[in-house]
Amino acid sequence: SSELTQDPAVSVALGQTVRVTCQGDSLRKYYASWYQQKPGQAPLLLIYGINSRPSGIPGRFSGSSSGDTAFLTITGAQAEDEADYYCNSRDSSGKHYVIFGGGTKLTVL
Amino acid sequence: EVQLVESGGGLVHPGGSLRLSCEGSGFSFNRYSMNWVRQAPGKGLEWVSHISGNSDNVYYADSVKGRFSIARDNARNSLSLQMHRLRGDDTAVYFCVRDQLSSGIFDYWGQGALVTVSS
Question: What pLDDT does A1 receive?
């Protein structure tokens, strides 16, 4: 199916590690990209490809995948990491150019 | 510095039309595919439309197919989205987004233009 599924909400204690998941059939063929969105702002590309970060993205953000699931890991979460996180990928069904996950609200405790 | 600046948002009645524009700067505009992505109030991201660098390939989400039309003018570094027969569920912030190598990797986003469809 042309869907990417994310947990609606995740929390992490300050300084701890958290993993955000994105699951869908398209991820068996395409890599996921990950975006961070803070209130009132445009999304920001965090991770793409196997595990690439655009310039300026902190190294505590990393990506990985297994089968039909992609993971965004934040190692040593900071207060400023509290945001919504979205995954996307090309749609392997061919029905859409790109599909997005529903987003995960990350709370840093 | 890559910049994408949208314009043209506003309030429109149901059934009406509106045209969004996006001006790109700081990069070779004609070398990149471009997209529109929207976000309804309090909701997630929804891909709307894609156009390749030379306009040969154009795609639309099912929710807007037949009502929206994407176009670009590489001479003016501009992207547009013509929207017709607007509905309440089209109310959203519309983002102009650069596509890295037509890969679906959206590496630069505009600040967004709010479209409100209401009577």
Answer: 60
